[in-house]
Amino acid sequence: MTDTTTETTATTPEPAARGPLPLPPAAARLLIAAGAIGTIASTFLSWTWTPNFPGDLTIYGYPAGLQVIALVAGALTLLYGLTLWNVRGLGPLNPGKATSPVLLIALSAFAVCWFTGIAIAVDLGGLVNLDPGAFVAMAASALPVLGALALPHPAPGTGLKGYLSKPDQPRPRTLSPLAERAAITIGTALALVVFTYGIGINDDDSETFIGFLLVLVLASWGLVHAGLLDRFATMSAHHKGFATTLAFIAAVIFPFTQSDDHNANIGVNILIFATVALGLNIVVGLTGLLDLGYVAFLGVGAYAAALVSGSEYSPYNVHFPFWAAALTGMAASLVFGVLIGGPTLRLRGDYLAIVTLGFGEIFRITVNSLDGTSGPNVTRGPNGITQIPDIKIFGFNLGDAHDIGGFTLGRFANYLFLMLLITAIVVLVFTRAADSRIGRSWIAIREDETAATAMGINGFRVKLIAFALGASLAGLAGTVMAHVNYSVNPQPYQFAGAAPPNSAFLLAAVVLGGMGTVSGPLLGASVLYLVPEKLQFLQNYELFAFGLALILLMRFRPEGIIANRRRQLEFHETGQLDVPEQKTLTDEAAVSKAGA
Question: Where are the transmembrane segments (predicted)?
Fold first, then answer.
C-alpha cells in the first residue's frame, strides 16, 4: 500500500502557479469577459457634459474620438478573454493560452480609459466634468487587468519580468499557400486602416492621438507575445513578392481615403525621409560606419535640383526636365560622397563620426555663405532658392489637382505617388545590393573589418561604394523635396534641430526601426515624423523625446523595433551555444590513448 501511494504521488502533476491575485481561474476568466463587455458598453454612454474636450464625447449611442479607441481595445480584450474559454475559432489568437498577451491587451483598454478620464479632469478643471459613462469605463477597464493578474503566472518566481518576457509558443499549424496569402491580405488591410485612422486624427487633438498610441503600443506588444506578428512575418517571408505588392497597393490606396491634402503632405514627407534613411541604412546598418553628417547629401541633391529646375532665383538660366534634374542631384551627391569618403574612410569608429559631422557643418556653412557677399552668388545664402516650379512628367503637372474615378487628388497626393515609385526603386536597390557579393562584403566589414581584410576584402573600396551609393540615394530624395517645398535653404541641414530633416533624426530613424532591414527605417521615419506632427506640444522638446526614446529602446529592444535574426541573436540570450563545450582531456585518457 505504501509503495502504491508513493508512486501515485510522484506522477501527480503540480498545479499551475497562480498570479499575484488569489482568485480561482474560473473567476479570473469571468472577470476578464465581464470587464471587456462593460468597457464596450461604456463607449455608448456620455463621458463628459461639454463638447470642449477633443472628439465630442457627449453623445449617447455614438462613440467618438477616444471612445472609438476604447471600443476597439475593449473588443480585443474580449476576444483574448474568450480564448481562455476555448471558444471555437479563436484558438489561433493565443495558441499557447499564455497569460501575458491577455494582460497586455487588457492594459491597453485600461490605459486609454483612465487616460481619458484623467485628461478630462485636467483639461476641463476637475472630476465634476466626468459623466457616468467615464466612471463606468474606468471601473470596467480595470476588471480585465485584475482578472489577468489572477491567471497562472507565465514564469513563477520571476515577478514582473515574467509578464514582460515573450512566452514560448507551440509550433504553428501549417496553412495552405492560399490561406497564408489570405492572412497576409487581411493583415495588410488592418495595417492600412490603423495607419489611416492615426494619420487622420486632427493635429489639435493631442489627447486622442496619445490614446491611439497607448492602445497601439500595448496591443501590438500583446500580439507579439501571442506570436501573431512573428507568424505574420514568417508568412510574409514565404510570400515576399506577394506581401511587397500588397504593401505597395495599400500605399497607393491611402490618398483615396483622405479628404484632407494635408495628410497626403505628411505621407510625402514620411516617404522622403524614409528613403533617405534607407540610404543611410546602407552606410550604418550594413557597413557599420557611423555617419553624423549624412543630411548634407540630401541638401546637395536638393540644391543641385533647385539650380537646374527653372527657378527665377537660380543664377543659371536652365530648366531641366525632372528626370535630368533627378540625375543631376544624384550625380552631385555621388561626387560629394566620393570626394568626402576618399580621404576619410580610412578612419574608423569615433574618428570617422567626427569627420562626417564636420562635413555636414561645412556644407551648411558653405551654402549659407554663397550669397554674393561672403562668396559667389550661387545659393543666395540664408534666403535660399525659392519659387521652384512643380514637376511635370509627360505633360502631367503634379502641382494641379486631378479627378480620378470621382476622387479629387490634390498636389501632395500627386507627389505621394511619385515618392512611392521612387521608394520602390530605392527598396529594390537596397535589397539587391544587400543580397549581392558587395552586400556580403559590407556585412563582413561591419562584423570585423580586420578579419574581412585578412580574408581578401578590399575594405576601403567596399566602404567607398557604400558611401557613394547611400549619398546618391539621398540626393534622389533631395530632388523631390526641393519641388515639394518650392524652395531650399540651409537651415534644415544640420546635425540636430527641432524639425526634420537633420542627421540626428535620420540616424534615430535607422536605429529605432532596425539597422540592416528594409522595413525598419520606413517604420522609424514614420514614427519619428508622425508623433511630433500630431503631438504639437512635443515640438519644443523633440530632442528630449528622441533621447528618451533611444534610452528606452537600448534598454528593452536594442536591435530595433524590426530586427533581423542576426542582431536578435547578438543582443538577447537564446540558450544557443555559439561555441561547443570545451572539455579538457585527463592524463589517464591521454596515457591510455598513447598506449593504444
Answer: 26-47, 59-82, 102-122, 134-151, 182-202, 208-229, 241-258, 264-284, 289-308, 320-339, 412-431, 464-484, 504-531, 538-556
Distance CA 39, CA 401 (A): 44
C-alpha cell at 326: 533627378
> Using a CB cutoff of 8 Å and minimum separation of 24, what contacts does 110-113 make?
110/141, 110/142, 110/144, 110/145, 111/214, 111/215, 111/218, 112/66, 112/69, 112/70, 112/73, 112/141, 112/211, 112/214, 112/215, 113/39, 113/42, 113/70, 113/137, 113/138, 113/140, 113/141
Dist CA 82 CA 62 (whole Å): 26
| 8 Å CB contact between 518 and 278 | yes
CB-based contacts of 61, cutoff 8 Å, min separation 6: 44
| Cα–Cα dist 194/314, whole Å | 43
Model pLDDT, residue 142: 93
**The whole model's pTM is what?**
0.81
Residue 398 to residue 402: CA distance in whole angstroms? 9
CA-to-CA dists, residue 192 to 123, 195, 247, angstroms: 32, 5, 9
Distances (CA, A) of 162 to 101, 157, 476: 12, 8, 47
296 and 363 Cβ atoms separated by less than 8 Å: yes
- Residue 367's nearest CA partner among 382, 386, 357, 355 is 382
d(CA 450, CA 455): 9
The SS3 assignment for 470 reads: helix
Q: Is the pLDDT of residue 367 over 80?
A: yes
3-state SS string for 47-97: CECCCCCCCCCCCCCCCCCHHHHHHHHHHHHHHHHHHCCCCCCCHHHCCCC
Question: In this predicted model, which residue has the larger pLDDT, 69 or 446?
Answer: 69
Would you say the C-alpha torsion 462, 471, 341, 334 has a positive or negative sign?
Answer: positive
Question: By the 8 A CB rule, do 147 and 35 touch?
Answer: yes
Alpha carbons 207 and 516: distance in angstroms, whole number: 34
64: cell is 467618438
Percent of the chain with pLDDT over 70: 90
